[in-house]
Write a structure and sequence with these properties.
- The complex is a heterodimer of chains A (about 110) and B (about 120).
- Chain A is built from five helices and no strands.
- With about 110 residues, chain A is an all-alpha fold.
- Chain A is globular and about 40 Å long.
- Chain B is α+β, with helices and mostly antiparallel strands.
- Chain B is built from three helices and five strands.
- Chain B has a five-stranded antiparallel sheet.
- Classes of the chains: A mainly alpha (about 110), B alpha+beta (about 120).
Chain lengths: ~110, ~120
């Protein structure tokens, strides 16, 4: 799809900010998400192309204003709902109980 | 699909997973062939960047047979086919202002290409 993810050749995005001594994870929720993502992926619920397409379907403004692992979280939530493994209402209930410092959905 | 055992995790994460498919599929192109990227605009998933559509390049490497993301993202099967490294000059992609010395090597599936 001709989505916002296909940024090649666009101008005005600012410099690529290379981080010195960049950590693998910036917060603990990113570490946890990585594990959850790999566990669900290994179970065969979805394939990598379905996962990528789910990222592409994010609303453009949200896509541009969220981080790499927030894209993962969005995609994981979408594929698990779409494939019937969790209900959207379960997800919304979990989010409403989440401490705000957890960030994530932003 | 079986669960991943703890002792498999390091191997998987350090080595990565491959979309390579063990199938005898004829290649449509070979090293040195002049090709043009198709101008397709599918509403679904594709790994064909917009900026390369309609542009001419040269096949540099045939990587072998891989699953096709455009179909596997939508439950339409792997559609195994050859993937190539295709060289596009910066001037072909970005015009006369681009450096004559620069080029991009883009992974291209058979279904993204036509003979030039």
């Amino acid at each position: 799809m001709n989505g916002i993810h296909d940024l090649g050749g666009m101008h005005g995005m600012g410099p690529v900010d290379a981080e010195t001594d960049e950590p693998i994870f910036h917060t603990d929720w990113e570490r946890r998400l990585f594990a959850v993502m790999m566990a669900t992926f290994a179970s065969g619920i979805f394939n990598v192309d379905e996962f990528r397409h789910s990222v592409e379907r994010m609303a453009p403004a949200e896509y541009l204003s969220t981080s790499y692992y927030e894209h993962w979280l969005h995609s994981l939530e979408s594929v698990l709902v779409e494939k019937g493994h969790i209900e959207r209402s379960e997800l919304e209930a979990a989010w409403s109980n989440a401490p705000s410092a957890a960030g994530g959905g932003a | 699909m079986p669960a991943v055992a703890a002792d498999m995790v390091t191997t998987i994460f350090m080595g990565g997973a491959s979309a390579r498919v063990d199938a005898e599929i004829a290649a449509k192109f070979k090293k040195g062939d002049a090709v043009v990227a198709r101008n397709i605009n599918p509403a679904g998933h594709t790994r064909l960047p917009r900026y390369v559509r309609g542009k001419r390049g040269t096949v540099v490497t045939d990587y072998g047979v891989f699953g096709f993301p455009d179909t596997s993202a939508h439950g339409k099967g792997e559609t195994p086919q050859h993937v190539y490294s295709v060289r596009f000059s910066a001037r072909e992609l970005w015009g006369a202002d681009a450096s004559s010395r620069d080029s991009l090597y883009i992974d291209m599936w058979d279904d993204y290409l036509d003979p030039a």
